Automatic annotation (TrEMBL), chain A:
Cellular component, GO annotation: glutamyl-tRNA(Gln) amidotransferase complex; mitochondrion
Family per similarity comment: Belongs to the GatB/GatE family. GatB subfamily.
Compositionally skewed regions (Pro residues) per UniProt: 58-69
Annotated spans, Disordered: 40-69, 77-96
Reactions accelerated catalytically: L-glutamyl-tRNA(Gln) + L-glutamine + ATP + H2O = L-glutaminyl-tRNA(Gln) + L-glutamate + ADP + phosphate + H(+)
Function, in words: Allows the formation of correctly charged Gln-tRNA(Gln) through the transamidation of misacylated Glu-tRNA(Gln) in the mitochondria. The reaction takes place in the presence of glutamine and ATP through an activated gamma-phospho-Glu-tRNA(Gln).
Origin species: Bombardia bombarda
Pfam family membership, one: GatB_N
Record keywords: ATP-binding, Ligase, Mitochondrion, Nucleotide-binding, Protein biosynthesis
Protein name (record): Glutamyl-tRNA(Gln) amidotransferase subunit B, mitochondrial
Gene Ontology terms: biological process: glutaminyl-tRNAGln biosynthesis via transamidation; mitochondrial translation
TrEMBL record, chain B:
One GO process term, biological-process aspect: mitochondrial translation
The protein, known as: Glutamyl-tRNA(Gln) amidotransferase subunit A, mitochondrial
Mitochondrion among keywords: yes
Organism in which the protein naturally occurs: Bombardia bombarda
Taxonomy of the source species: Eukaryota, Fungi, Dikarya, Ascomycota, Pezizomycotina
Enzyme active site: 73, 157, 181
Main location: mitochondrion
UniProt subunit comment: Subunit of the heterotrimeric GatCAB amidotransferase (AdT) complex, composed of A, B and C subunits.
Amino acid sequence: MTRIPTAELSRYLLTGQLTRRGCLGARRVAFSRFSTTTIAGLSQTQKPQEQQTQRIPSQPPAANTPPVPLRKQLKEQARALKASGKKKTKKTDNQTVPGWELTVGIEIHAQLNTARKLFSPAATSFNGKPNSHVALFDLAIPGSQPLFQPETLIPAVRAALALDCDIQPVSRFDRKHYFHWDQPSGYQITQYYEPFAKNGHITLYPRDGIAAEDGESITVGIQQLQMEQDTAKTTAQPGEVQWLDFNRVGVPLIEIITHPQIHHPATAAALVRKIQMLLNSVDACVSGMESGGLRADVNVSVRRTDGASSGKLGTRAEIKNLSSFKAVEDAIIAERDRQIALLEAGGVVAGETRGWSLGSTETRRLRGKEGEVDYRYMPDPDLGPVVIDDNLVRHLGNSMGTLPDAEVDQLMQQYGLSSKDALSLMLLDNGRRIEYFYDVLDELEQRLGLEKVSETTTVDAVVDQSHARLAANWCLHELGKVVELLDGLHGGRVAEDYSVVPATDLAAILAHLHRREITAKVANNLLWGLSRGEIRSGEVTNEIEEQGLWYKEISEDEYMSLCDDVVEGQDKVLTEFVRFKEGKSKAYPQGKLMFLVGQMLRTGPEENMNPASAERVMRKRIEEVYVPGLQAKE
Amino acid sequence: MSARTGQLRGSCLRRHVRSSLRSLSSPQQQRRLLNHFISKAPTSHPDEASPTTTENNGDNGAPSPRRFTLAVKDNIATTQSSLPTTCASPFLSTYHSPFEATIVTQLRARGAALVGKTNLDEFGMGSHSTHSAFGAVSQCPDNDSTPTTGQLSAGGSSGGSAVAVATGEADVALGTDTGGSVRLPAAYTGVVGFKPSYGMLSRHGVVPYANSLDTVGLLARSVGALRELVVDSGLWAEHDPKDPTSLSAAARRRCASGKQSYSYYYKQQNKQQEGESSSSSSTPNTLSLKGIKFGIPLEYNIAELDPGIRAAWSAAASHLQHLGARIVPVSLPSTRHALSAYYVIAPAEASSNLAKYDGVRYGLRAADNTTPTTQGENEGGVLYSTTRGLGFGDEVKRRILLGSYTLSSEAMDNYFVQAQKVRRLVRRDFDRVFALDNPLHEGEGAFDLSDLPETVGMENKFGPAEVDFLLCPTAPTVAPRLEDVGGEGKSAVDAYMNDVFTVPASLAGLPAVSVPVRVRGVTAEGTEGVGDMAGLQLIGQYWDDARLLAVAEAVAGSLETVEGR
């Protein structure tokens, strides 16, 4: 059973709204955003619920299938899983098939972060009124001509640099011909013969989520990066009607083509995820896979490992248009298993194009070799070569900032964050969360009077980075809850700048918390108070003062009387301590102790209690009063 | 505009004009007869307020508008409600362009009054203006055809524009020249046709046939009219930011530097800046032909050349020599491959350009155009096949298929790639014979004599002769009868032959002009041509357009005196 997101529930309960018919759209949005928070959850550790959320991201519009209700879809998925008997198989068991080697190459399409289209000065817009940002050329009006917009090179070159590519001084545009209604000119302008970047590579580590079989790291070569045009957006309407929105036509994309050097499904998913992170970190791309800004095609082939295949790769099948990381992994597993089964039964793998739908367990044939389009690539005779100067490349390289891998290392080494937390911080809200974290940390360190950690120092050399971990923890989890709820209510604007909880105020809360001047519970209440506007920015300390929220620890006597209250009627529990004392059990019953401490915290004024003190006093009382008392009774 | 060369026009046209003066003066009747207009602007009186006087282009001191009538080939976008832009294609038979072509705007700013849109071969593909959804263009009216002449081809693809100029209905006509589409009809109809250097005149708003070859061309009854428009009024200097292949202002200056014929334009500009009224009527002194070197390309003397035309060519050469010009034979060895290269490259680009006509956004749409069942392999059909089957004529379909084949992955290397190599060789041939360097390829250095074919003759120990211009026929024959070109026995390749002399300059992007010359008395029995007009073509080095037009004016004048004798 899937959980209804809190945002959806609160919108319904508080404002009586169901934003879209049948909640479908809203849920889709909520789910897909939620899935970003689980990006860092490495595939092996994903909870079942999260796995389901990742199935939902938008499907490529199937031409004439009416939208399937989400609930039905989920049910069918569950049924399909059950039928296949794979329900609880962990993917870690699925990475290899004995006797066979899998080989995967990936093509990733990503929308570039630019103000204008690739060949027209029309604006790129994602929320604009349909067909409101369209130039004559975008519609292929006879006599109109392409006008290359040079500023589109900036994000493109950045992306290429982030992938360690050689930027080509001269590249050219070619036409790729095929008919489709989302392609007004009958061809897509792309870079087939002379792409603008070649020979890159990307290194993946276990923290990126690669398969265990790939060891400590794996480097995958990038064959080339090319700039190309996006197509129009098709919306299927009832009755075989298609609506076309040409706002998207001509929006610049880059296509990233890897070498076929990936041999495990999890690694393929990790590569796509990491490329998305890299593109975000250099500001090359607008949005991630969840919102349709990134799509992947995978080429899958298998061969026997016994040497019979004489080093040649098997025939490959291409699976098109995968729109989530999970789909990448699942589709590869399904296709690999299909090909192996086919070959083991004496069949032959056909070079063909296949599709993958959400929740299915098999890829399906789209078209075979004979149905393959001959794209008739031709240099575009209207467009001159693109000449990229060395100075531009150097300038963009210098101004690019730290790349994610280096940043993750810094977060781990300087602040002692776990790799998972570090990655999550960097991935959330397209990199805005990590910026927020740095703001909070700066402010916190000022308030605590701490020196800024220099880049060269490591955890060992530094006094104590617990405040940084505290800040990271709150930015990730506590703020995460606020953002998730409010975004649901306010339609996604909170995650844009977190202005509801200014960094200075969170830092003020955390400074008090770090100095143990308030309890975590009070801190949490303050955070929510801020987010609801009940506490004004800059008033955090006043609020604590006025409401008397300062942490004043209760006296030893009060602790003792709490202990007495709690052990009332708990003789059975106390017996355990007697048994230990008498040497009848070997281990100190710590669990029982903590149970009693928990009872204390629940009974007493929690905001004024220190769990450590409570534990200490309880332990002492057991030792000195209750156990002797019980023993005396016996 | 001077109508001096009007005397040179073909006899059947003159007969037509005379007869139309008598009885056939209405435009509708003319249209039915010559079929050279697809649409005509509502007739306006000369003194009527015209857009040109109020709507100045606004850019750098456009010269004072001087009114002239302009016919526009119907593959060039116009926005007037009476003038759709059909490209003579069933596909666009009712298509109105949402914007005006830059060249039309530029000419209107110079005083042009649009008289109509002229008929052509569909999308510019053809050599006789017969492949039109609106019917074939002819030079001679139906009722005027005598048993001996019959209807004559106006040439193509800008046949309608040429006839509009020849009949006097337009002073100037716009055409497009991809492989000779302005020069060939000019030669057949006895008017002047000019194809400028590639990248000089904006193609924005010109419906592309083969982008890398397409140029806007101009037709008029005299060279002087074209020279005034292109050179004196500064059309050559205007960069259009909307056309990515339009040379930048800086590149134009660099290309023009050291070419003295542009200096007149500069002088005019300076005068205007100094506030003096430009004495626009005073044209520069007629250029002396003394010392100008004309090359006679030997490869153009083909067996198929009409003897009458060969005689006219030869006579013109001796006459120019007589006037002090130097005539030297030159060799352009790659010429024999140029035509095949052209008919690979142009259809390839055409097949790509015409892919946009799918009936989704504009133009003709068949009833079952976009039903999903026509998509892909589902029904064994191809998306849009019905619409495209209905929307294109046979010649266009032929070239789309040809182009689709030569671009296909199996044929690409053997056709398209080879043709591009030939194209480079053709350009190198020209660069070698011209005394001027090609400003777009300055860095290429000297030609190695050992690379030259043995057939190339040496002028001296430094190599073969270098010339200022090439002089050759525009077409191998005079205008043929329409019934001969449209007949069943004729293959498409026969029609392609007419482009053999015009295609090389197109492949190299060079300026070329066709001036009319009368072919007299020598037309042998059995030759196809029955007209009495032919064209002599002058080809110049890249961006030498100004001097080319000045020389062509002098040559045309001198040929007239020859005729007049």
